[in-house]
Amino acid sequence: MSERSILLVDDHPIVREGYRRLIESRTRHHVVAEAETASEAYRLYRAHAPDLVLMDLSLPGPGGLEALRHIRQWDGTARILVFTMHQTAAYAVKAFEAGAIGYVTKSSDPTELLSAIETALGGRRAMSSDISRALADVHLEGRARPLDDLSARETEILRMIALGMTDEAIADGLSLSLKTVQNNHYRIRAKLDAPTDALLTHIAIEAGLLGDVNAAAD
Fold first, then answer.
1. Are residues 126 and 19 in the same domain?
2. Whole-number Å distance between alpha carbons of 189 and 167
3. Same domain flag for 123 and 173
4. CATH code at 11?
5. N or C: lower Cβ tally within 10 Å for the chain?
6. Can you give the residue ranges of the HTH luxR-type domain (predicted)?
């Protein structure tokens, strides 16, 4: 495959450096830019128009789901490969619903990531083996999941609520009006039958939305 450009999105500089070296030493592709936040990812995507975005979901403030949705709104052809610690089927489903072309977990072998990059650049859906198994298990079980009825934006707002952010902080982070966030907050509670934020936080943790918080703190 000919040389392609990649935008790396992860809030840990050492992680970005490691994967930039992996990509540039094992493929013909190059990392054209690196971003730490959702807003920076959107700005750099517009500036560089990379062939692929390799994006973590856990970013400070608005997370990867919001960045993914925002980029895809601006460019419906954007190819975004999620690369994250989150290993739950629920999060993978939300990423695909938001427009991701692939989903690879950071616990996967580096060869799986490199293979997924080539697959995504070829315009095909890519998944690491653990996520493929998780999605297959959910399909076979046939049971409804707590996040099934939430949109990608509602899922992102739920994650931010679970992180302890106020409606005002969420509105500022997502560039929304306070009223819009409050309405979403109310709908999320109604959909999840959760009268308190404590219960919303419990649901978010159980669904794996905060799955790598402890890992990030280590």
1. yes
2. 14
3. no
4. 3.40.50.2300
5. C
6. 143-208
Find the domain containing 171 and state its range: 152-217
**Cα–Cα dist 145/155, whole Å:** 13
Angstrom distance (rounded) from CA 180 to CA 48: 31
pTM of the predicted protein model: 0.75
Q: Rounded to whole angstroms, what are the CA distances from 76 to 50, 69, 79, 99, 218?
A: 13, 10, 9, 8, 36
In degrees, to the nearest 5, what angle opens at C-alpha 137 toward C-alphas 134 and 141? 145
Q: Would you say residue 176 lies in a domain?
A: yes
**Do 121 and 99 meet the contact criterion of CB atoms below 8 Å apart?**
no
Residues 25-78 have pLDDT tens digits of 999 999 999 999 999 999 999 999 999 999 998 888 888 888 998 899 999 999
**Are 93 and 162 contained in the same domain?**
no
Domain count for the chain? 2
Q: Which residue has the tokens 């995507």?
A: 45
* The predicted structure's pLDDT at residue 213: 44
Is the confidence at residue 200, as pLDDT, over 50?
A: yes
The string of DSSP letters for 39-70 reads HHHHHHHHHH--SEEEE-S--SSS-HHHHHHH
